[in-house]
DNA sequence: ATTAAAAATTAGCACATCCTAAATTTTTAT
DNA sequence: ATAAAAATTTAGGATGTGCTAATTTTTAAT
């Protein structure tokens, strides 16, 4: 139906437009897709012709409903494949991205449906990211971040904003993963860095790190 | 490493060159890849530049060792994925081809290795075709065909020469599959058609059909 | 051996996707 | 309000892969 390149653009636009109401800019897209602004402008015009995006010259793009559904289908496949790779094929969570980036473009309605069934209809991928259903509905995802937790409070790690392999490897090193219980021991006010306790150890985390960790707060009575 | 198109050419050349010593012709390839002769000539030149084929203008192509290894890697992936689809994802054996045609191009050494392990290192795919190992070694495959079996003799179905979905669906209909025991009841000499008995039923098979069914003869004492 | 038919190649073009450099428009700073 | 800077688009070109039509070479028929 759509080319790999088109699908990659739709996905990138989807992710970037989460961050603000404004149209996604040409440069943002170029950066995110590791290509040049001129190429982005070209592709955007093609996507607009196919009614996948609304495009106003110089003012960025928005996905149309059709474009968004398409993007969600690709994201669904990406996350299902990641789940397959980690749960069934012994991939580490920081090894799956490049392969899922290819597998997400395989065209077969039946394959997606059967894969989903085979995996037990998972709601979240190995990074805690929600897996949209075939209609494009996304399960609730945690929105609270570790950075928002107050001193003395606890939470369960539910996901990550940055899923780059460098960040995932960092998490591995400090022994924090999905489901890990984290308690805020201290907040350093001048740089918002934190000391937390998890798996029995005390760990210092930068603002950058705590802003990338989603948690579900545990009510402490 | 190589484009999808290049990989498809290598695979097609590999399969066509099984049939004779002579170079694979431009028209054969065009037919097999559903493209035009002119396009084939172009691609062949590119493959020759990359030392994947030996090419003599007007006299067809042969795979080089490197081209053959490459082709075998693609065939390995194709057959492993077919096995996955049938064994794990409930695909019917005549539904897997198009999807495997896409999946065979996914680039990841680790993925192939882990998939192979996950599937239990299968030797044959759902159509009875042998799965090459990572070095390109192919397990023995049956070479005797039903058409060669004499009246009164029996064999076990081990594979098929034609694995098009129309032939597979025909086999489904007459209830013949891998492992089915087949006995030759009668051979009609004028057109080489056969009456066989399998699963308790007597079935009439054309020469075309019996020439496409591989069997391992059972010694009758 | 000559010629007709078939097969293969070349020439010229199209489309998707990418690029650099130049031009244009918008945004920011003064 | 103007000018400089930044962002974006346009122009022009490259590459990979396909096509049709014309040409060349090989093969088959007489
Ligand atoms: Mn991708
Ligand atoms: Mn993920
Ligand atoms: Mn293929
Ligand atoms: Mn097969």
UniProtKB/TrEMBL annotation, chains A, B:
Pfam families: Fe_dep_repr_C (PF02742), Fe_dep_repress (PF01325), FeoA (PF04023). It comes from the Bacteria. Residues 1-64 form the HTH dtxR-type domain. GO terms for cellular component: cytoplasm. Keywords: Activator, Cytoplasm, DNA-binding, Manganese, Repressor, Transcription, Transcription regulation. One of its GO terms (molecular function) is DNA-binding transcription factor activity. Belongs to the DtxR/MntR family. This is Transcriptional regulator MntR.
């Amino acid at each position: 139906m759509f080319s790999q390149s088109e699908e990659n653009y739709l996905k990138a636009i989807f992710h970037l437009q989460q961050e603000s109401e404004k149209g996604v800019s040409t440069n943002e897209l170029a950066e995110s897709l590791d290509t040049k602004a001129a190429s982005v402008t070209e592709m955007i015009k093609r996507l607009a012709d196919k009614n996948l995006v609304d495009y106003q010259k110089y003012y960025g793009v928005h996905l149309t409903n059709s474009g968004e559904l398409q993007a969600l289908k690709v994201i669904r496949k990406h996350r299902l494949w990641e789940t397959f790779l980690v749960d069934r094929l012994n991939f580490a969570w920081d090894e799956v991205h490049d392969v899922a980036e290819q597998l997400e473009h395989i065209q077969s309605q039946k394959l997606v449906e059967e894969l989903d069934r085979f995996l037990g209809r998972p709601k979240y991928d190995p990074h805690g990211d929600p897996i949209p259903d075939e209609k494009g509905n996304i399960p609730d995802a945690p929105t609270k971040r570790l950075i928002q937790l107050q001193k003395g409070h606890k939470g369960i790690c539910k996901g990550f904003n940055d899923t780059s392999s460098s960040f995932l490897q960092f998490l591995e090193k400090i022994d924090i993963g999905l489901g890990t219980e984290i308690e805020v021991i201290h907040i350093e006010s001048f740089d918002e860095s934190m000391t937390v306790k998890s798996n029995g150890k005390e760990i210092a985390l930068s603002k950058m790190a705590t802003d990338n960790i989603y948690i579900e707060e545990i009510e402490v009575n």
